[in-house]
């Protein structure tokens, strides 16, 4: 039997029509279904291609947890929400759907650390600074 950590990662997937409120509501409903409170969240996880929008950053900020971005090689399953969650540990709650989003919850495996899980998003300020330094460097 798997030892439950009490720390949860929410894996999310979403279409371009999704809103942050929709994803937040889906995560809250998923946590409630699993008998958990938002205080159990350790992180929000999704595929790095989903960072083309501010939505995942807004969702993570709402819950006060870090956003972690995963690549295809990090996902142990085909489905985005379940794969992103399962990368942290055993699934607690399989994929749940709303109109434009999916969510799955996983217990963090023993020894789980945020630092070793996926990649953090690069902040807009860091990207702007990098672009400025590159443009000043010349050809």
Architecture overview:
It contains 4 helices and 5 strands. With 139 residues, the protein is an alpha/beta fold. It has a single domain, classed as Nucleotidyltransferase, domain 5 (2-Layer Sandwich), CATH 3.30.420.180. It has a 5-stranded mixed sheet with strand order 3-2-1-5-4. A hairpin with a 3-residue loop joins strand 4 and strand 5. Helix 1 packs across helix 2. The radius of gyration is 16 Å and the shape is globular. The chain starts with 7 loop residues before the first strand and ends with a helix.
SSE diagram, text form:
Layout: E1 8-14, H1 20-33, E2 41-47, H2 55-63, E3 67-70, H3 80-86, E4 91-97, E5 101-107, H4 124-137
Parallel strand pairs: 1-2, 2-3
Antiparallel strand pairs: 1-5, 4-5
Brief characterization of the structure:
This protein has 139 residues and is α/β, with parallel strands linked by helices.
Radius of gyration: 16 Å
Question: What's the average pLDDT?
Answer: 87
Structural class: alpha/beta
Percentage of β-strand residues = 15-25%
At the first level of CATH, what is the class?
Alpha Beta
| Overall outline | globular
What series of H and E elements makes up the topology? EHEHEHEEH
Instruction: Characterize the biggest β-sheet.
Output: 5 strands, mixed
CATH hierarchy: architecture: 2-Layer Sandwich
Question: Cα distance, first to last residue?
Answer: 59 Å
The CATH homologous superfamily: CobE/GbiG C-terminal domain
Number of strands: 5
CATH topology assignment: Nucleotidyltransferase, domain 5
Question: Roughly what percent helix?
Answer: 25-40%
Weakly predicted, low-confidence segments = 124-139
Our count of domains comes out at: 1
Count of runs of 4 or more consecutive helical residues: 4
Strand order of the largest sheet: 3-2-1-5-4
